[in-house]
């Protein structure tokens, strides 16, 4: 009996010790700098900053999509410009999007529900929808319905791209009903300074963008969505003062492009867009491109995309143009959605017969808005530009007219320009000079390699449904 009692006592001590260790471990694993009850305003600011940095930053913009779309090119370390990329090249968009942006915004939504503040929830839904749209535009099928909730879904399933877009349209419709300019106040909003009426416009503008993203696949759903937006009545982004953008400040919180050019000099403007701007006598050229450091006959000199390192270096650093100082300034904004883009989208919706608006007039307004965005306001200069036959709206091929001009207007917004080029199939671009894809161009991002090792079952199912995990595999929305 004595021996039995001792065994029971020892077992009890072990159990108590194990329980105590678990409690201690939980205490040890707490972040001493993390708030137990995070405030929605701090979370909102953080989510806006990290999402804007990711959208406008190196891996997803400067070192990939801006090269694919031939806004920028590389004069040094040219592998990305030649499509020599692997499954670690796009980790930033995936990891930051899911682990930080969406997780933070989900927390804002949770806190907003507890506080019964529908405006926080509405703003978070709009921002989360934007981040999800960036992810699915780039990768295709992605975790959506189970994303950002690691305690419940450690290995989230991938939703088909169609389902993601449809889900985002529902989320944005819900956000629109939650947002109330006369409702509870919010704080921490760097994009619109806590003005809910602006978020209502942005929500509708993002709905319009996504409706057109699916228009070649699901025209009736696109048309229905646009009709709902018009009926709702809050309108779209309606001036350059409404632009959705994150405005940066001084170092260390400067624009990511400015930060990169402080220490690196391996990027130049692409010859493709410089040639186009010269051909159109486009007054945005001195804004998009910097004069060459040494005098040259043309002043602005772009370089071909995808040169070998040797061929690129022979062009010379001082006789080729960097992107313009506007984009390299510390305070340059990360534009999320411009007024010009919304006007192009409205023009396309009209051209498709989704609305009764005048497509040609909206197209002209879109170009004018892009000029005005960069403080080009001379009415005669704008009228002269619009009067050129090469600029005039062509109703018989609206995709070319809108695609060519939208490509120019989206300069610097690599991810959005990349999505629109794939959807509209204009402008006509030539593959990288020494490209690694046998004369083809990238049409998507590759999933991170960590998905194969940490979420293999769901990754494998997505690849089986979507196609080979390769740069050349077209996504669902990219029909033609």
Q: Helices and strands, in N-to-C order?
A: HHHEHHEEHHHEHEHHHHEHHHHHHH
Mean pLDDT: 92
Q: Enter the CATH topology name.
A: Serine Threonine Protein Phosphatase 5, Tetratricopeptide repeat
How would you sum up the major sheet?
Answer: 2 strands, antiparallel
Number of strands: 6
Radius of gyration: 25 Å
In whole angstroms, the N-to-C terminal distance is 83 Å
Uncertain segments? 1-29
Strand coverage percent = under 5%
**What is the spatial order of strands in the main beta sheet?**
1-5
Q: What is the CATH C-level name?
A: Mainly Alpha
Report the total helices.
Answer: 20
Range of helix content: 40-55%
Secondary-structure map:
Elements: H1 2-28, H2 40-56, H3 58-68, E1 72-74, H4 91-115, H5 118-139, E2 142-143, E3 158-159, H6 161-178, H7 196-213, H8 219-232, E4 244-246, H9 256-261, E5 267-269, H10 271-279, H11 285-288, H12 309-315, H13 325-328, E6 334-337, H14 339-351, H15 359-373, H16 379-387, H17 398-409, H18 414-424, H19 449-454, H20 456-466
Antiparallel strand pairs: 1-5, 2-3, 4-6
Keywords: Lipoprotein
Pfam families: SusD-like_2
Protein name: SusD/RagB family nutrient-binding outer membrane lipoprotein
């Amino acid at each position: 009996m004595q021996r039995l009692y001792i065994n029971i006592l020892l077992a009890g001590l072990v159990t108590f010790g194990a329980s105590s260790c678990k409690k201690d471990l939980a205490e040890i694993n707490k972040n001493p700098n993390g708030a137990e009850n995070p405030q929605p305003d701090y979370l909102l600011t953080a989510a806006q900053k990290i999402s804007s940095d990711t959208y406008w930053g190196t891996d997803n913009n400067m070192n990939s999509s801006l090269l694919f779309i031939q806004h920028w090119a590389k004069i040094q370390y040219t592998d990305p410009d030649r499509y020599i990329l692997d499954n670690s090249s796009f980790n930033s968009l995936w990891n930051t999007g899911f682990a930080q942006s969406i997780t933070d915004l989900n927390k804002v939504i949770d806190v907003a529900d507890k506080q019964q503040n529908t405006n926080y929830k509405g703003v978070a839904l709009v921002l989360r929808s934007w981040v999800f749209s960036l992810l699915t535009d780039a990768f295709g099928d992605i975790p959506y319905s189970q994303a950002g909730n690691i305690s419940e879904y450690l290995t989230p399933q991938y939703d088909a791209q169609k389902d993601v877009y449809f889900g985002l349209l529902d989320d944005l419709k819900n956000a629109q009903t939650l947002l109330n300019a006369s409702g509870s106040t919010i704080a921490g909003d760097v994009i619109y300074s806590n003005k809910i009426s602006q978020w209502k416009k942005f929500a509708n503008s993002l709905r319009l963008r996504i409706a057109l993203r699916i228009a070649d696949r699901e025209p009736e759903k696109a048309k229905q969505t646009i009709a709902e937006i018009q009926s709702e009545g809050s309108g779209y982004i309606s001036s350059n003062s409404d632009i959705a953008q994150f405005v940066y400040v001084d170092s260390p919180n400067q624009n990511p492009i400015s930060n990169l050019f402080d220490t690196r000099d391996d990027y130049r403007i692409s010859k493709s867009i410089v040639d186009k701007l010269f051909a159109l006598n486009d007054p945005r050229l001195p804004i998009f491109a910097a004069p060459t450091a040494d005098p040259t006959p043309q002043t602005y000199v772009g370089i071909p995309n995808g040169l070998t390192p040797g061929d690129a270096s022979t062009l010379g650093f001082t006789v080729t143009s960097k992107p313009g100082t506007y984009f390299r300034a510390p305070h340059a904004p990360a534009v999320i959605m411009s007024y010009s883009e919304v006007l192009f989208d409205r023009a396309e919706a009209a051209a498709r017969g989704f609305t009764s608006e005048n497509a040609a007039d909206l197209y002209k307004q879109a170009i004018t808005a892009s000029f005005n965005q960069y403080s080009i306001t001379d009415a005669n200069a704008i009228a002269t530009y619009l009067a050129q036959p090469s600029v005039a709206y062509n109703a018989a091929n609206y995709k070319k007219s809108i695609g060519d001009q939208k490509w120019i207007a989206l300069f610097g917004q690599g991810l959005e320009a990349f999505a629109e080029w794939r959807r509209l199939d204009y402008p006509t671009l030539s593959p990288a000079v020494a490209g690694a894809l046998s004369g083809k161009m990238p049409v998507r991002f590759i999933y991170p390699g960590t998905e194969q090792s940490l979420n293999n079952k769901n990754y494998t199912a997505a690849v089986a449904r979507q196609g080979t995990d390769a740069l050349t595999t077209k996504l669902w929305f990219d029909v033609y």
